[in-house]
């Protein structure tokens, strides 16, 4: 009986990283994202230097890293697909990248967090999938990504920001619970 209570308590106390709403300019987010893409496509992280905070954090696949130890930021990638979302309210951008070369390629999702006051990148958080990852196939992924429609949603049809955030928190909690259950189940 204690195990379900422990699981319930840990799920209830699971924290979603707090970020203050720091409204920033869309042009700043676009510049930071363009610099990230330049760094990623050339394998030259110095493209980020002008906008990188002194104490910026680099996270790849949920592990803190440094730029010289990066899985992909220091190798030039031929980017076949890039899609970006800019969040001026949270002062963040999200980029979805597909690279078919070198080798079997990569699929990368990266969030850039900026400080609205300084205009500097404070966090680069990437999920990188490549050869050897479960069901990995960049050509297949690219085929479907290119078929997606990402036209702007008409204002009267848009959900409120709070609604979208609530849905995202629910998905995050489900994923956290599944990871937790798998860890506890594996330990038994």
How is this structure best described in words?
This protein has 188 residues and is an alpha+beta fold. It has a domain at 23-150: Nuclear Transport Factor 2, Chain: A (Roll). Helices cover 35% and strands 27% of the residues. It is built from 4 helices and 6 strands. The protein has helices spanning 2-13, 26-42, 138-147, 161-187; strands spanning 52-60, 63-65, 78-87, 92-101, 106-114, 121-130. It has a 6-stranded mixed sheet, sandwiched between helices. A hairpin with a 4-residue loop joins strand 4 (92-101) and strand 5 (106-114). The longest helix has 27 residues, at 161-187. The protein is globular, with a radius of gyration of 18 Å. The two termini are 15 Å apart. 19% of the residues are buried. Residues 1-19 have low confidence and may be disordered.
Query: Please, what is the average pLDDT?
Result: 84
Query: What would you call the shape?
Result: globular
What count of helical segments does DSSP give? 4
Q: Termini separation (Å)?
A: 15 Å
Low-confidence blocks of residues: 1-19
For the sheet with most strands, the description reads:
6 strands, mixed
**CATH topology assignment of the domain at 23-150:** Nuclear Transport Factor 2, Chain: A
CATH class of the domain at 23-150: Alpha Beta
User: How much helical structure, as a percent, in the residues?
Assistant: 25-40%
């Amino acid at each position: 009986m204690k195990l379900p209570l422990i699981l319930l308590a840990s799920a209830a106390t699971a924290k979603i990283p707090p970020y203050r709403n720091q409204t920033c300019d869309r042009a700043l987010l676009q510049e930071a994202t363009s610099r990230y893409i330049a760094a990623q496509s050339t394998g030259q992280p110095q493209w980020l230097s002008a906008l990188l905070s002194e104490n910026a954090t680099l996270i790849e696949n949920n592990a803190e890293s440094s730029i010289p130890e990066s899985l992909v930021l220091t190798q030039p990638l031929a980017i076949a697909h890039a899609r970006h979302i800019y969040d001026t309210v949270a002062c963040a951008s999200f980029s979805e990248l597909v690279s078919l070369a070198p080798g079997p390629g990569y699929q990368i999702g990266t969030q850039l967090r900026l400080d609205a006051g300084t205009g500097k990148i404070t966090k680069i958080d990437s999920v990188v999938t490549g050869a050897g990852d479960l069901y990995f196939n960049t050509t297949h992924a690219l085929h479907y990504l290119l078929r997606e429609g990402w036209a702007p949603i008409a204002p009267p049809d848009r959900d409120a920001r709070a609604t979208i955030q609530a849905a995202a928190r629910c998905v995050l909690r489900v994923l956290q619970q599944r990871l937790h259950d798998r860890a506890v189940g594996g330990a038994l």
